[in-house]
Design a protein that fits this description.
Elements: H1 2-9, H2 21-34, H3 50-62, H4 66-91, H5 103-114, H6 127-144, H7 148-162, H8 168-185, H9 190-217, H10 221-234, H11 241-253, H12 258-267, H13 275-292, H14 306-313, H15 325-328, H16 333-356, H17 361-372, E1 379-380, H18 387-392, H19 404-407, H20 409-415, H21 419-427, E2 433-437, H22 446-452, E3 454-460, E4 464-469
Parallel strand pairs: 1-2
Antiparallel strand pairs: 2-4, 3-4
Helix pairs in contact: 1-4, 1-5, 2-3, 4-5, 4-6, 5-14, 6-7, 6-8, 7-8, 7-9, 8-9, 8-13, 9-10, 12-14, 13-14
Amino acid sequence: MLTGLSLVMRFFSFFPSVMDHDESTYLVIADALREGKVYLRDVIDTKPIGIFTLFAAFQILFGKSIIALRIITAIWIALTAWMLYLAHRELIKDSPGYQHNPAPVASGVIYVFIISIFTFYGVSPNTEHFFNLLTVTALFIILRYQGLPWMLLAGVLLGLGFMIKYVVLFDALAIGFFYLWRQVTAQKKWMYWFSRCALMAIGFFIPFICVWMYYRQLGMEETFMFFSFELSGRYIIDAAWYDYIRYVMDGLLRFLPVTVWFIFCSWHWRTTGISLPLLAWLWGILVIIIILLPGKLFAHYFIQFMLPLSLLAGSFFDTRRSPGPALAWMRKPVIGYPILAVLIMINMAFQKSDYFDKVDHAAEAAQYLNTQLQPGDQLYTANAPQIIYLLTGTYSPTPYVHPSLIWDKNNSAALGIDRDDEWNKILAQHPRFILIKDNLKPDNPMLPALDTAYQQVRTFGKELVLFERR
């Protein structure tokens, strides 16, 4: 059911070549890794190696098709929702008739639904989609099993998530603290919980140590440590206090009534006991902290919060609750199911309009370039969609595949990139074609070369402009 719901709700998002440039970066770098290039040397981004390795594995197994990756993401989301369902069941298994309680199913459905509505809040694949499965699976394991090997496995899963994005540390802290609280309140002996917490911690560091050893034998230990620790501090910016409030409120209000269910279950926590709301709030608070800490406030960061949000919001449908006449109608199948069906159809209609019906200018540019490129020709997509490298079978002439790393001044300063120097390195490779989005600022160092050494040969839509070397 969850897989079918995920595939249906995301169907029209399978087709465009670009929804978000982050996904394009993962695909292009993954393709480079398959060709033997080394991450952080030949291709560079700011994220850990995990997401690129995962995408490379997908490409090996299923090919380089963007549609295949989007389908895999939909199935991955369904698996995450299923693990959320199982974790919720474990949290209420001491209640009578928990096997038939609809609350765990509701948590899974809510997760699939809210992550499949807004482009940058979940429709476009990003790191959060993939590490969420690892974190919730680790949660299920510590709730279900008590053996030492299981605790080690839970730690390893969290560590693998950490190697996709370092913010998973805060998920791990929330899950670890909750596990410790359960053991202490159950009056377990200190050696019992200490040994298991220690094994979880050891498992958490295993993936990181393996990656460190990989870079150490390449002589890139210093580079790895810079990207792992120092760079993160350079990326923190100070946003205004009202920007933080606006970001959180925007994320919460766009997912009504799920937020209302979350608040209701928090207020009436005694109905089902303290465990579920305590976990959701501990997890949610720590996640919100790490979401806000960098100050960049990108929409896809909020996906990390969707797990605790869905977990507790699903409890609204717990048969032990009596929500009162103002909210009770939402739980009636005769009302709720038709509304859900209508919302799914509305969502699909919007997605068809946004993703399927619009002209795909990036794919159009790639199709044209495939008729022009000769063996050995270099292409630079500049600030245009980098997915064109994948669509044309070419590779970026600069290690910085994501254009913002060079052309965004904050990013280039954090990475220590001299924009003029990097542009000269690109020009030295004599790219035959340069594709830009026609919004370059007057101080952009590309402009003189585009005016003198290149000529405009074609446009795609209103923004994409293709230049060819004279």
